[in-house]
Write a structure and sequence with these properties.
Structural class: alpha/beta
Oligomer: single chain
Helix content: 25-40%
Shape: globular
Number of helices: 18
Largest sheet: 9 strands, mixed
């Protein structure tokens, strides 16, 4: 089936009731499969990895696994892909990952709206009325590619899905609906298939295998298919069935806010905003309506309006297309002749993280929104999920290929869950910052929520439903009265004070933020598949502030490798310039040792390559020469690393003569060394040279990076 046929708007999708079968607590083993085989290599009836959920996280994981040689397939309960824009901000780190996916980052940059159309958040009384303030979230350094080889992007989720599906087609993936399988429902599920309209309804894991039952609708009848696999990865969203079937609870704050999302098109509105007040988000406050408008694409006139929703006093039926049209007109400040409401859907904002990411002897794994649910403030949801997949893919591939034991999968949870908890806190802070603006205008968002709780759970619950709705509407009308022009102006003392407070919030960066470079690029794993740096500063990162902070490069273990442009040195006349992040392969499990061209480091490189052979893992050495090195210096590496050929020479490319050197950027000396994992995170580093036996040190580094903790303990016991 051609993928283009799958990109249709949802219409009348059936609803299956999943058989939620949480495992009894005694059934779910707590140990990893450290002494048994996780994957049934050679058994074609068993699929190595089944991914449940075909959103960006699941699709990225399927691409990464396939490129690493791991067979996988995808189940998706919907029969077609949604065109609701949903997530739209792609941060630096996710774009760096996309650079390794056959030009995906470049295609996003070509396809997204020009940055000048989305760099601002605008606060106004209506889209054609007074502007209360605006915040430009792009700074000059964001375009200079000093800390990253690629910039952030504004690109709707359904468009991203389209590009990911094109990549999967290029990897020979096929798409099937139940009607398209033609009698193959009882055959073992083959790799490189995406089954649309198949809902996971039960998971039964044993010591040897996972049996998944998928329900589907065929010829008007509900049918089931059994799929045998070695591992299930749940990327099936915030309401994850996989998480529920595994009996994994969420921890955090539920129901922060209920909202209604209205997806609509209007070229008229898009053209007006394009020419008069371009922006990404519009926060609109007037006496008739309050809402947040997300401008997904001004040129195409594609928008999503977010409005507070207070059930049961309000029903989804209260938000009919006609009602939403009237609400949009009030927020725009005039009528639109070409308004087309596409979709209306409710959603609930949570701030929760799963109590664990692994279950059933590491055979059931959660990633993306299935593992963590954030407020949308800051765009951490999809980005954190994509980075989950990046962390997980190389570890699964290492186990499949026999490079690492199944216990390395434990480090996925060890590393990613603290990041999810941190990002949850940051998202909550950013959400609260968003609430500071209406607060300054005299609107206390907590009052409506408190009244709503009293009506639902307090004395108000005994009142007739009509009276409950009237009370709630009265509160809304009273609140919006604070936004009247007679009150909110510079001549009114109260209004002048409120406007002054609003300006102060914007000037001090205390409103909703878009970019968090320190967190997007600077997140660090403190323990896991790495050797912790006990000589450096201990403890976690600084607590989130909710404000933008600059990223400070570091090569501390667990950190993402810093970016610097380097030139490949070779005998050819062409001079190729790449990022240090490009030194790590995206198509195989390979570790990279970065050294300076000095004799002790060459000795360390020999030890690293020998240890890698012992561990049966691919490794390569990068000899990084200082800027301005004489032509032909790479011959020195050829002599020093002889007879090895799995190395490369590169030279720093500085933007100016006073720019920092590579080792200064990494906060190290050139006597140090850095071992980088396949996911571009630092597994081990020495700041200023090896003390002791290089072979022993490299065995310690590779043991930690491959999850062989017992090997490390044995070495320590021997010494």
């Amino acid at each position: 089936m051609a993928s283009s046929r799958l990109f249709k708007r949802f219409s009348g999708l059936y609803k299956l009731n999943a058989r939620i079968q949480p495992y009894p607590s005694a059934y779910i083993p707590t140990r990893a499969l450290s002494h048994s085989k996780l994957f049934s290599n050679g058994d074609n009836s068993v699929l190595p990895v089944l991914i449940v959920g075909a959103g960006p996280v699941g699709l990225v994981l399927s691409i990464l696994l396939t490129k690493l040689g791991v067979k996988c397939a995808v189940l998706e309960k919907s029969t077609s892909f949604s065109r609701h824009p949903q997530a739209h901000f792609i941060n630096n780190r996710s774009m760096e990952i996309f650079r390794k996916l056959d030009g995906l980052a470049e295609e996003i940059q070509r396809s997204q709206p020009p940055v000048d159309l989305w760099r601002k958040f605008i606060y106004c009384t209506s889209l054609s009325g007074s502007i209360l303030g605006s915040v430009d979230h792009m700074q000059p350094q964001d375009f200079e590619q000093v800390v990253s080889p690629v910039s952030v992007a504004h690109f709707s989720q359904y468009k991203l899905n389209t590009l990911l599906l094109k990549q999967l087609e290029n990897l020979s993936f096929k798409y099937y609906t139940p009607d398209g399988l033609k009698g193959l429902d009882h055959e073992p599920l083959e790799a490189r298939q995406i089954l649309m309209g198949y809902e996971c309804v039960s998971i039964n894991a044993s010591d040897d295998i996972v049996s998944v039952t998928a329900s589907f609708l065929k010829d008007g009848k509900h049918m089931e298919r059994n799929i045998r696999c070695n591992m299930v990865v749940g990327t099936d969203g915030a309401g994850s069935t996989v998480r529920k079937l595994a009996g994994i609870d969420m921890r955090g704050e539920k129901d922060l806010q209920k909202l209604v999302s209205v997806h609509f098109l209007s070229r008229d509105l898009g053209n007006y905003l394009h020419s008069e007040r371009p922006g990404m988000l519009f926060f609109i406050f007037n006496t008739e309506a309050i809402g947040v408008l997300v401008a997904h694409d001004l040129k195409q006139g594609e928008f999503v309006l977010q409005m507070p929703f207070y059930p049961p006093q309000q029903n989804l039926e209260d938000f009919s297309p006609k009602t939403c049209e009237r609400m949009i007109f009030k927020l725009v400040g005039r009528e639109l002749g070409d308004l087309n409401v596409i979709d209306i859907k409710p959603w609930v904002m949570h701030a929760e993280v799963a109590e664990k990411f692994l279950s059933s002897q590491n055979r059931v794994i959660l990633a993306g929104d299935a593992a963590h649910r954030f407020p949308p403030a800051g765009g951490f949801g999809m980005n954190t999920g994509i980075q989950d997949s990046h962390n997980l893919a190389w570890k699964i591939a290492s186990v499949v290929k026999g490079i690492a034991p199944p216990s390395i999968l434990n480090t996925y949870e060890t590393e990613r869950r603290p990041i999810a908890i941190f990002n949850t806190t940051l998202s909550i802070q950013n959400f609260k910052a968003a609430m500071a603006v209406p607060g300054a205008l005299g609107l206390d968002p907590t009052i409506a929520n408190s009244v709503h709780r009293v009506i639902n759970k307090g004395v108000g619950s005994i009142l007739p439903s009509g009276l409950q709705s009237a009370i709630l509407d009265g509160i809304f009308i009273l609140g919006r009265a604070q936004l009247s022009e007679t009150l909110l102006n510079e001549k009114n003392p109260v209004g002048a004070l409120r406007l002054a407070n609003l300006r102060r919030i914007f000037e001090e960066g205390k409103s909703l933020q878009l970019q968090f470079p320190a967190e997007d690029l600077g997140f660090r794993y403190l323990e896991g598949a790495l050797v912790p740096d006990h000589n450096g500063a201990l403890g976690g990162p600084d607590g989130p502030t909710g404000r933008r902070r600059d990223y400070v490069p570091t090569a501390d273990p667990g950190s993402r490798l810093p970016h610097m442009n380097v030139r490949i040195l070779s005998n050819s006349s062409s001079e190729v310039t790449i990022s240090t992040l490009d030194l790590i392969s995206g198509d195989k499990i390979e570790f990279l040792l970065i050294i300076a061209p000095i004799e002790p480091s060459y000795h360390l490189a020999h030890a690293a390559l020998k240890v890698a052979e012992e561990f049966k893992v691919s490794a390569r050495v990068c000899v990084l020469w200082p800027a301005g090195s004489a032509k032909g210096v790479e011959e020195g590496s050829k002599v020093s690393l002889k007879p090895r050929d799995n190395y490369m020479d590169v030279m720093e490319v500085k933007k100016s003569s006073n720019a920092s050197s590579w080792w200064d950027i990494c906060q190290m000396t050139d006597k140090g060394a850095i071992l980088v994992r396949p996911d571009e995170h630092v597994a081990w580093r020495l700041k200023s040279g090896v003390v002791g036996d290089p072979m022993r040190e490299m065995r310690r580094a590779f043991s930690a990076a491959l999850g062989l903790k017992s090997h490390i303990k044995d070495q320590e016991a021997d010494h």
